């Protein structure tokens, strides 16, 4: 009875019912000298070793070594202490329960070695998959072919950017000198600053600055209504000259008495001389017509009227589209800019005003 109990303790290597373990058991390993093997170094194979041995010390682990020469391959199985080198190699995976082969450079040449700590775990060997050099080369070729178009596009973009930069630098002196010498209605841009002439309208900003701003209303005769909005109506009108029968055609935007706030907002914006530009609708003056209980804004008149309405009713040519786009972009750029053409800071920056259609005919 006592003998059986101690035998059980030895087999399980553990304490039972408070009885301490006598000593740790050693691992059972396949233990054969170097033998010929049918393993080909791929997948999983069995050593076919018929000898199982109890390792001499409980710290020893199971080891398998597979070697291959020009004609054959061999396997060696044994127990070994992992803290001691084996054929010049230290074991590094002996805590595993399976024997996974790793290629090592031993004192006897290249070999595959595995180590593990489970009973007879060195009988079944697992080799790492072999990467086919041809498949790897094909994979790299596919990647290179896929990236080649992107690389070419990138080179083209860089080339265009370089060409643009060089061309801009070459043209920069001529462009700057042309801008400085450019005249608008006889005025140098560097001197006009706030006031620029509009050769495409029936009135000029020079005339706008000389308009009589007395309390008496200007001699304006309304001709016909050319537009109507939510807050006001727009009329084509005649601004008569006091000394002759001549007149100038102007546009009059009439606000009812109840829309004083809208009229004042537009008047304040138009009155800022920093906003005057050849591609922005020119403002002449604002009037409070108390007798008619109306508020007026008088501006330059453009016979083609509102851009939206004109484009709705007409198809324009490519040349006119270029002129129109250029005019709009220059006008919007001036409104959004924080400096005047001469470089002086502009204190009022407007998001946008009403865009008017103005074609300049040569």
UniProtKB/TrEMBL annotation:
Xref: Pfam families: ecTbetaR2, PK_Tyr_Ser-Thr
KW Transferase (keyword) present: yes
Catalytic activity as recorded in UniProt: L-seryl-[receptor-protein] + ATP = O-phospho-L-seryl-[receptor-protein] + ADP + H(+); L-threonyl-[receptor-protein] + ATP = O-phospho-L-threonyl-[receptor-protein] + ADP + H(+)
Residues that span the membrane, as ranges: 139-164
Membrane topology summary: Single-pass type I membrane protein
Subcellular location as annotated: Cell membrane; Membrane raft
GO CC, one annotated term: membrane raft
Keywords assigned: Apoptosis, ATP-binding, Cell membrane, Differentiation, Disulfide bond, Glycoprotein, Growth regulation, Kinase, Magnesium, Manganese, Membrane, Metal-binding, Nucleotide-binding, Phosphoprotein, Receptor, Serine/threonine-protein kinase, Signal, Transferase, Transmembrane, Transmembrane helix
Record-level Gene Ontology MF annotations: ATP binding; metal ion binding; transforming growth factor beta receptor activity, type II
PROSITE patterns per the UniProt record, alphabetical: PROTEIN_KINASE_ATP, PROTEIN_KINASE_DOM
Binding of ATP, residues: 253
Gene3D superfamilies: CD59 (2.10.60.10), Phosphorylase Kinase, domain 1 (3.30.200.20)
Name this protein carries in UniProt: TGF-beta receptor type-2
Species annotation: Knipowitschia caucasica (Caucasian dwarf goby)
């Amino acid at each position: 009875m006592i003998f059986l109990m101690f035998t059980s303790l030895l087999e399980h290597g553990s304490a039972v019912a408070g009885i301490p373990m006598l000593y740790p058991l050693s691992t059972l390993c396949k233990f054969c000298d170097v033998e010929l093997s049918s393993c080909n170094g791929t997948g999983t194979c069995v050593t076919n070793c018929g000898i199982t041995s109890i390792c001499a010390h409980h710290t020893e682990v199971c080891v398998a070594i597979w070697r291959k020469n020009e004609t054959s391959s061999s396997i060696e199985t044994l127990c070994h202490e992992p803290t001691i080198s084996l054929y010049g190699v230290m074991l590094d995976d002996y805590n595993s329960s399976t024997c996974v082969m790793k290629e090592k450079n031993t004192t006897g040449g290249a070999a595959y070695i595995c180590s593990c700590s489970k009973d007879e775990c060195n009988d079944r060997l697992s080799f790492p998959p072999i990467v086919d050099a041809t498949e790897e080369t094909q994979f790299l070729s596919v990647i290179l072919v896929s990236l080649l178009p992107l690389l070419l596009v990138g080179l083209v973009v860089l080339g265009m950017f370089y060409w643009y930069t060089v061309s801009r630098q070459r043209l920069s002196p001529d462009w700057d000198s042309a801008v400085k010498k450019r005249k608008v209605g006889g005025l140098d841009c560097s001197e006009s600053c706030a006031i620029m002439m509009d050769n495409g309208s029936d009135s000029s900003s020079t005339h706008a600055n000389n308009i009589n701003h007395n309390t008496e209303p200007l001699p304006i005769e309304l001709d016909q209504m050319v537009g109507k909005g939510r807050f006001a109506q727009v009329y084509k009108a005649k601004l008569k000259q006091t000394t002759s029968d001549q007149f100038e055609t102007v546009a009059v935007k009439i606000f009812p008495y109840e829309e004083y706030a809208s009229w004042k907002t537009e008047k304040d914006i138009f009155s800022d001389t920093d906003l005057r530009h050849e591609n922005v609708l020119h403002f002449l003056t604002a009037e409070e017509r108390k007798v008619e209980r109306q508020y007026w804004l008088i501006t330059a008149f453009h016979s083609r009227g509102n851009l939206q309405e004109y484009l709705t009713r007409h198809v324009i040519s490519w040349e006119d589209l270029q002129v129109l786009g250029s005019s709009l972009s220059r006008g919007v750029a001036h409104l959004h800019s924080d400096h005047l053409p001469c470089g002086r800071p502009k204190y009022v920056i407007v998001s946008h005003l009403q865009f008017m259609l103005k074609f300049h005919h040569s």
